[in-house]
Amino acid sequence: MININITFEDSAKGEILTLLDKKINADGLIVERANPNQKVLTFEGEEISINDFGGVKKGSEVFIKDNLISLMKLSKEGI
Amino acid sequence: MTWFDKLKGILNIDIKTPILSLNFNSNNKVTNKYYVSLERELDINLAALSPKQKQDIKKIFPQILANEKTIFKKETLDLFDSINDYNKNKEGKQILTFFENKIPKYDLEALNASLYLRSVFRKRKDIKKLKQDINTTFGTRGNNISNLCTAGYFDNFLMELYNSSPGTFNGLYEDIVSNKALAVFVNEHMTKEKITEDIKNKLDVSKKYGIKFVHIHGIGTSTVKKINEYIENKEKKDFDTFHPKKILKEENIIIVELILK
Question: What does the pLDDT look like over B103-147, one tens digit per residue?
Fold first, then answer.
């Protein structure tokens, strides 16, 4: 099967996080569902809020920010 | 069994033609669990699924991610694809390469993002979020770089300045990017008094380097109107020493050059 694009609407953010076993803490940051003290990180090693949630890359589920500068760095990595 | 076969089993759907994309939404107002568009996108409404179906999809999600490598928010993917196209065309590469090792690395990153923003602006597409992203990451300095880049100062002024006098460039660069010289970027919230103050401050700094002009920039119909009114109703004492000259005037964009007499 050829690679296909997998996307989600803004409305489905919360549900997608649930599918990934993640949730949002009181500060709006994305954390591990099983261990809420563990915040997920972007490929730049930063915490990420639900507002900035732009996607996930495979490979220990690295999170992607919906931000021009982050996406330019990601593009340079060549995923 | 592929993840797609498993997904079809979970949702009890029978699709013969291959799909090109899979999109998840969550719409409480619609009872349809899925539909397939003419563009062969399978759209799944997570809000309409049963708890068991959601649980079963959760079990195959790692396989989906492992196979397809990424999952993006739709708008984020659009932006990412646009950035990839921009990089393939190598737009702005010449300017970026020129300023490598001549300006701080942080500024170079801001300039890189700004060159992309400029390419979008030139296609008359919305740049509001892109500007916000540059401001969030690089602050006011990034904002200044973005304005200067869009207005063409990096390619049309700063490159030439460096080529003719690296010493003057090194002295002036910091003043320009920290918004102390060269150009006043008017926005709809600026008062007449603020515009005058900005012009005077910038001219004072520019004069130190023998630059005898200041540009006033405005984008947007209300800002263009504000600048036109400002120039036409200028108080004599404020502009005694200037020749104002409009070097670009369109419905949505204006650039005025004030040259010292």
Answer: 999 999 999 999 999 999 999 899 999 999 999 999 999 999 999
Which stretches of chain A sit within 8 Å of chain B by CB?
1-16, 18-21, 53-58, 61, 64, 66-69, 71-72, 74-76, 79
Domains of chain B (ranges; CATH) run 3-71 (no CATH), 73-165 (no CATH), 180-261 (3.30.110.20)
How is chain A split into domains, by residue range?
A: 10-77
Indicate the residue of B71, B72, B87 with minimum beta-carbon distance to A75.
B87
Sign of CA dihedral B127, B133, B138, B140: positive
Q: Which residues of A touch B136 (CB under 8 A)?
A: 67
Structure token digits, residue A38: 């563990």
- Residue B253, C-beta contacts closer than 8 angstroms, at least 6 positions apart: B218, B219, B224
- What's the pTM value of the predicted model, to 2 decimals? 0.85
Cβ atoms < 10 Å from Cβ of B220: 15
pLDDT of residue B209 exceeding 80: no
